[in-house]
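Customer ticket, subject: "Can you confirm the structure for DinB family protein?"

Message body: Hello, I'm evaluating your service for our small team and ran a test protein. I'd like someone to confirm that this is what the system normally returns, since I don't have a reference to compare against.
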Amino acid sequence: MDAKTLLLQQWASCLDEEDWFPALEKVLEEITFEQVIWKPTEGAMNSIWEIVCHLLFYKKRLLTRFFGDTANEPQADNNETTFRLPTMTLQKWNETKQEYYEVHRELEKILVKAEQEDLYRQIPGERSLVLEMKSLALHDAYHIGQIVFLSKMQGA
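Agent reply: Thanks for trying us out. I re-ran your input and got the following:
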């Protein structure tokens, strides 16, 4: 199996094709607004929505850098600020979720169209497309586990 095929499989399993862990799209459709903003009272944990914002930040950053659009690149002072939420309303949650799906699928389209040399071309401010998307897929899997754990803590 070549790197592109393997990466496409990993990328799909992070959003809409269940593999060793549940696909994020399925997990998010089964939880309520109250569950996405909930945080445990003990420990420093982020809410499900904060985690989705964090994942979205890094995907949007890769997408803008891939297209050389650094003027519109998302900004954060540090990793912790990538978890920040917009105004907490159901509409904003639905917008965040939709944007996450769109950015994830846009990166998937780039990968589908990529030729071998595109996979290993360095992206400004990043490594190659294949290395960045591999890292993001692993990052997604890690945080999807947290999201599933948070939802189970709430009885979902």
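A couple of notes from the result: Helices lie at 3-15, 24-29, 33-37, 48-66, 90-113, 116-119, 129-153. The chain has a mean pLDDT of 92. Feel free to reply with more questions.
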